[in-house]
Amino acid sequence: MHAQGTNKAILINSYFPYLLAGSFIISFIGLFIPIMEVDASQYASISAELLRSSTFIEITDLNVNYLDKPPLLFWLSSIFIKLFGNTSLAYKLPSFILAWFSVYALFRLSSIFYSKEIAKWTSLIYASSVAFLLFTNDIRTDTLLVSFIVISVWQAACYLENFKTKHLILASFAVGFALLAKGPIGAVVPFLAILPHVLIYKLYGKVFRWNLLLIPLILILVLSPMLLGLYHQWGWVGIRFFFWDQSFGRITGENVWKNDASYFYFLHNIIWIFLPYTILLLASLIHRCRHFFHKIEYISFFGFLLPFIALSFSHYKLPHYIYVVVPFAAMLSGEYLNYFLRDKKTWRSKIISAFQIFLSSIFLLLPLALFYVFKAHFAYYLGYVLVLVLCLYFGFTKLRFHFEGKLIFSFISFSLAALFINLFAYPKLLKYQSTSEVAFYLKENNLPLDNFYSFNLHGRALNYYLNKNVAYFKYDYVEDEPIYVFTDSNGLIEIKEAYSCEILQEFPHFSVTRLSLNFLNPNTRQNTLSTHYLIQVKP
Question: What angle separates helix 10-29 from helix 116-127, to the nearest 10 degrees?
Fold first, then answer.
């Protein structure tokens, strides 16, 4: 069940291992970037707290029963924290490993229907998208969710090919882990992707057999530790929350989280999240609609379209919710490339080529902009100009800038930008996250953590890196020994009225996940910053 491939797609065959290795190295660098506030640092703090608790199935946050995200991320991260300590690497590594396994799973899924060249492009597009760069760095529950969805759909597609029960079992386990990652959406997305393919190809006579009874049994087996913990902590309210309120309740409005964003909210988000391949996705969707009944698989089309529509009806939307459709978008885009990899110079290929060259130009200039934003030394500019010259030389001499060469060049351009974002921009940016910076300062200077408190400030990165739930400062804590307090300007004034204080260190602070033009402009940045203080309060 393969689409006709092309023997002329030699560039991807020659460069694929190196391109994929480049993507891996870039995302691997992200493992060492400090964990960002708010969601990722909260989940890291919960994972560390779980490790300090006496039970593994009951989740608490700041020693209070927790009822929001399912526990898989906390379970996996706590295991790695036990092995590697309270580091950025320890929290991120299990999700990172599974994300890269999903790259392999997507390659295998695409290989079922298309040529090896198309499968290579599919996995490369996925692994080098903005979304993948983000969700292997700023680790939330979505990373595990997307990974297990890809694995489950891959195994389900294998089952539809040969109807071997082992693939059904593996698909069921993967769906179970997707449920443990972020709730019912982990089962809904694979179902929406697979069912239309089954119906269109009229496979239901072969699919609906006795072994389907294994699916609920496996799901119950996988979910049972979580359900037991939820029941102990919350009773049936917790069970209902997991199966309904947390996911479907956002569509019906029963969930307390609401921002009532526009139904078109995800349209502009998918444009930047899927860079640098957005135009390929748009063209592939149009092509699919025009040739709907002449396709060999419908998993990618419905796996993208139906979850996209369902999520658009949610009363609460955030950009990372749309990550679940990115693997299917990559598969759609990879399949569409099959029409242009024979060096056909159609008007469509010319438009796509021109857009990719335009994007390449922007990505190649982006590191220079980052050097200006974060005031890099002149040596950075000089070094990057040398890299830029080598990149252009490679493009003209090796890639020769036919259609596939332009795609590879846009990949290289984006990868260069991504490399400097992870190597240079993110470390500079995270210097403005005071909650992690004060934790690093305390550990580097061996200050007594038992006498450390916060006042007027809350930050889970602080809790995670110090491996404790930092207590809130109260005035009667000051007795015979000096104590250390992390506070803001108002807290400093208030404490100074009652005690003698010494400012040990000032920390400029900005909410790093909410960038603004004023912050990015070095000339106006100071006006966007608040100052947080580490002070010593003396008896």
Answer: 20
